[in-house]
Amino acid sequence: MSQVAAIKTDFTTGGPRLILRAEGGALALAAAAAYAASGHGWVPFAALFLTPDLSFAAYAFGPRLGAFAYNGVHSTVPALALAALGQALGATEVVGVTLIWLAHVGFDRALGYGLKHSSGFADTQLGRIGKA
């Protein structure tokens, strides 16, 4: 049995899964609304919206490193920390980029793309994604 197959993966199911997905949708909408209110243009929003998915490239170096990179970029913690720093420094462009980042994270969660387990890209805290 391979090491990946031996890893037990826990998924969130039922009501908690629906709540997490709804929270993701709420985050996406709130971040997009805040972005709209900030006066930034929609061209940068469209151009940068999928940028966090470039972290997927780390899977070329294995599922453990891939999950680490993906989760780091798809967590709200670094985005919120950068937003707070940008706000404190008056760097409106930084705040705008972090709102795009947060909208992406929320959108992914709403679609069921959760944080990854080290067993593989398809194993997320919200359940398996893709074809079985």
- The helix/strand series, from N terminus to C terminus, equals HHHHHHEEE
* SS summary, helix count: 6
Give the overall silhouette: globular
Number of strands: 3
Q: What's the domain count?
A: 1
* Sequence of strands across the biggest β-sheet: 1-2-3
- Using the CA coordinates, give the radius of gyration: 16 Å
Q: What share of the residues does DSSP label as strand, in percent? A: 5-15%
Could you explain how this protein is built, in words?
The chain has helices spanning 3-6, 14-38, 42-48, 63-73, 76-89, 92-111, and strands spanning 116-117, 120-124, 127-128. It has one domain (13-122). Strand 2 and strand 3 (127-128) form a beta hairpin. Strands 1-2-3 form a three-stranded antiparallel sheet, with helices on one face. The protein starts with a helix and ends with a strand. The model is unreliable at 1-6 (pLDDT under 50). The radius of gyration is 16 Å and the shape is globular. It has 132 residues and is mostly helical.
